[in-house]
Amino acid sequence: MTQIILASSSETRKALLNRLHLDYLAISPEIDESAKPHESAEQLAQRLSFEKALKIAKDYPDAIVIGSDQVAYLAQSPQQFIGKPYTEQGAIAQLQHQSGKILNFTTGLSVQCINQQFEHTCVVPFQAKFRELSNDEIQRYVTIDQPLHCAGSFKVESLGISLFESLKGDDYTALMGLPMIQLCAVLRQLDVRAP
Q: Structure pTM?
């Protein structure tokens, strides 16, 4: 059976891939994730997911390598990307700024296997509309869920679901950082079965 490698150290992406009950390795690609001048969210997510997968695929040419990257931005500021807050104060500030607004997510997926001459890279969009949040709600949420390593400062798979008015997209796992519906479709092309 062909080895599968997740080009990521993200615990959330590992948890998503674990749903498929596949044996895989997780290896961090350690690439520069800086945006290039005038690069759109879609271009950045697509390029970084491709570069992450390619970096690992070059070292493991027999393996199926999965790379993914996510870029978030408010609908009214498409060139201003929203990163991870890393601190409670940063998370609180992000959520205060996002309250009542639409946050767009662009999640790139790249699956590569060099020896099979296979490469599939795509972008999956998702949209989250925050309800109007009070400062007390934001403070309580950040204290409980600790979303310090999540772009946009929430964990939709946890208490973060309570922050939204609506979610819109074809695959909610794209919001979590790895679009599983698209990934399963690509893996089937490589004869990897799930289920």
A: 0.94
